Amino acid sequence: MKFNNKEKYMRLALKEADKALAIDEVPIGCIIVKDNRVIARAHNEKEHAQDPTKHAEISAIRKACKKLNNWRLEGCDIYITLEPCIMCAGAIIQARLRNVYFGAFDLKGGGFGSSIDVSQAKNINHHPSIEGGILLEECSSKITNYFKSKR
To answer: Is pTM beyond 0.85 here?
Structure first.
């Protein structure tokens, strides 16, 4: 079975989500791609690190900036298994990421349209392209199953 690039990269983000699951974190994974190469990958570690900023996106952005030695991640795309929260949406805009691809929609906390749309804030100077629903069922079920196992 041949996958398009969006599906290929989202599958890599799902592998990162499995790493979060292995340490009993909410299974959210993220990768950043530049010129068809993965330059950063991360997963949720908020509980493990007891740090509210240890979301997969923030960790991946930090790694990508370090790798490129630049806080501007122009020409880079980010793939996340769950719609970014407000904090992560802001970091994505600040980092100048080109495209945002996410799997599951987050109706309670999504920062790119499901709860609030940070990209529509007045006078911001960067507007990434945003597409949700990539491998929707796989991304959604991973998170849903995690929370079902906690009940």
So the answer is: yes
Please, is 3 exposed, middle or buried when counting C-beta atoms within 10 Å of its C-beta (0-12, 13-18, 19+)? Answer: exposed
- Ranking 45-59, 71-85, 115-129 by mean pLDDT, the lowest is 115-129
The kind and range of the H/E element at 64 are helix 56-68
Per DSSP, what are the bridge partners of residue 38? 33
Question: Which residue in this structure is represented by tokens 């791609």?
Answer: 33
Instruction: Output DSSP code: residue 112.
Output: B
**Does position 2 have pLDDT exceeding 80, yes or no?**
no
Residues marked as catalytic: 57
Q: Nearest Cα to 59, choosing from 100, 37, 18, 87?
A: 87
Tell me how many helices (H) and strands (E) the chain has.
5, 5
Give the Cα separation of 96 and 80 in Å (integer).
16
Identify the band that residue 122 occupies on the pLDDT scale cut at 50, 70 and 90: confident
State how far the Cα of 123 lies from the Cα of 25, in Å rounded to an integer: 36
